[in-house]
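Exam revision sheet. Question 4 asks you to relate a sequence to its structure. Input first:
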Amino acid sequence: MIPIKQYIAQQFIKNTYHFTCDCLIPLDVIGTVKDYNISNNEIVLIVSVNNKIIHIGLNTPSLYIEQV
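Answer key, structure tokens:
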């Protein structure tokens, strides 16, 4: 058995999503999830956007995601 957060995070790998967030740093990107980290009980996705790597934490209340 594996922890539930690890199981959830693995479902994102190799899929492309449109991420939007209206937070301190507004976000509106389309990228492919390459990997993930679980830090302080938060899933952090490692996303490739235009050949650049960004980290997106899933504990953001105003984060929206749509599979492309």
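Marking note for examiners. The chain has one helix and five strands.
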